[in-house]
Design brief:
two-stranded antiparallel sheet; binds glycinamide ribonucleotide; Phosphoribosylglycinamide formyltransferase; Formyl_transf_N_sf; purine biosynthesis
């Protein structure tokens, strides 16, 4: 299985969707570490419950983003995840720097609760709802130096209803997140994602010998 670290800041329902798929045998990753930048993130409890190593690194303890990122890299490396593994941002609400990205080149993926490039930032669901879009959704993408910008792996859409708030739209988007994020991760684990500039191509699955004549 692909060794991964999962970074969270909050509830960790996306982390849970990954844990569940692993436990069902449907996702070939080994969650070596969960890191939270908040001491009270419920995602930490989820890790604890499933005996997954977890760690709190408070960004407020650091003078610079780079110093914080350097310590995160160290913690993740110490847990056995290097540039041949992957780092999954699952509701991690901090901007990461080149210090972090250079340690895991093209191996960091993020989920965003809107159809990028629309509504980047920390409030994707209410921003889309308040704008009055008719469709929103979520985006899983490789992380690059710009916020919510890297090459898109998969997107999924839901209708947005006139007059609804981000709190009403958000849960429908979250449900989709729990489907597409584990899928994107499984493709990464199967080494099926081919990067070509901004484009991500999904390589065909390996031969299924059972289906051969
Ligand atoms: C998710 O909706 C995720 O897409 C979003 O935070 C939520 C975390 O929920 N991420 C961002 O907004 C990143 N800009 P969770 O902690 O229950 O997985």
């Amino acid at each position: 299985p692909l060794p991964i670290a999962v970074l969270v800041s909050g509830g960790g329902s996306n982390l849970q969707s990954i844990i569940d798929r692993v436990e069902q045998g449907a996702l070939d990753v080994d969650i070596r570490l969960v890191v939270s930048n908040k001491g009270d993130a419920y995602g930490l409890e989820r890790a604890k419950k499933h005996n997954i190593p977890h760690k709190v690194l408070l960004h407020t303890d650091y003078a610079t983003r780079e110093a914080f990122d350097a310590d995160m890299v160290k913690a993740i490396n110490d847990a056995g995840v290097d540039s041949s593994g992957a780092v999954v941002l699952a509701g991690f609400m901090r901007i990461i720097t080149p210090v972090f990205l250079s340690a895991f080149e093209n191996r960091v993926i993020n989920i965003h609760p809107a159809l990028l490039p629309s509504f980047p930032g920390a409030h994707g669901q209410p921003d889309a709802a308040d704008y009055g879009v008719k469709i929103s959704g979520c985006t899983v993408h490789f992380v690059d130096e710009k916020t919510d910008h890297g090459p898109i792996i998969i997107q999924a859409a839901v209708p947005a209803l006139a007059g609804e708030t981000g709190d009403e739209l958000g849960p429908r988007i979250l449900k989709l997140e729990h489907r597409v994020f584990p899928q994107a991760l499984q493709w990464l684990a199967e080494d099926r994602l081919e990067l070509d500039g901004r484009f991500v191509r999904l390589k065909p699955a390996g031969k299924r010998l059972a289906e051969q004549p």
